[in-house]
Design goal:
mainly alpha; 10 helices
Length: 194
């Protein structure tokens, strides 16, 4: 479900924008706009936080949405430009911006909390695989040796090392060097350690 949330949220936002700013009148426009206002902006920000569980994100999304609506409305009123269209434009923009930040590449990705730095997904989340990987590194093996011992591909291990700072740090501490040193052949590593 976590993968589907951003595209669904963007689609819901675009439909809402089309209904609000289009020629549509009547109860459909009002119902969709109120439903979107009560959940979507807050849900976009709770997705950005990395809070686990869709139910907890929805439960937190409603009050966050209502707070965002109140803040934007209050700012517009105090600025002397109370406008339904301007308020919706700001909230639509904030929602899209939060989803884009969530979908950004890992280097640019912004996380606001709750997501543990120790999160290792897939096969490497299993402790026996991690133990075999550590044993291979302690025996002086390369990163390729560690991946083979853990029963994963070198590509998978590298991907997990990029996504989990805790795993990367554990591998560096275990091996007594940097990841670049682990990539080198054993003879080169031996000359580096002298």
């Amino acid at each position: 479900m976590r993968r589907l949330e951003p595209p669904l949220l963007l689609a819901w936002t675009m439909v809402t924008a089309a209904l609000v700013f289009g020629e549509v009148q009547g109860p459909l426009r009002t119902t969709v706009a109120l439903a979107w206002l009560s959940l979507a902006p807050g849900l976009a920000f709770t997705i950005l936080t990395g809070l686990p569980g869709v139910v907890s994100r929805i439960l937190l999304g409603v009050p966050v949405s209502l707070c965002l609506v109140a803040v934007v409305s209050g700012v517009l009123v105090y600025a002397g430009i109370p406008s339904w269209e301007l308020g919706m434009s700001v909230l639509l923009s904030l929602t899209v911006a939060a989803v884009i930040l969530h979908l950004a590449p890992p280097r640019l990705n912004v996380r606001l909390g709750w997501e543990a730095a120790t999160d290792v997904r897939g096969k490497l989340a299993e402790e026996p695989r991690q133990a075999r990987m550590v044993e291979a590194l302690l025996a002086g093996g390369t990163l390729a040796d560690a991946a083979e011992a853990a029963g994963v591909s070198l590509v998978t291990l590298r991907r997990r090392l990029r996504s989990s700072e805790a795993l990367r740090r554990a591998v560096e501490v275990t091996s007594g060097g940097s990841l670049e040193d682990l990539e080198a052949e054993p003879a080169v590593r031996e000359s580096l350690s002298r």
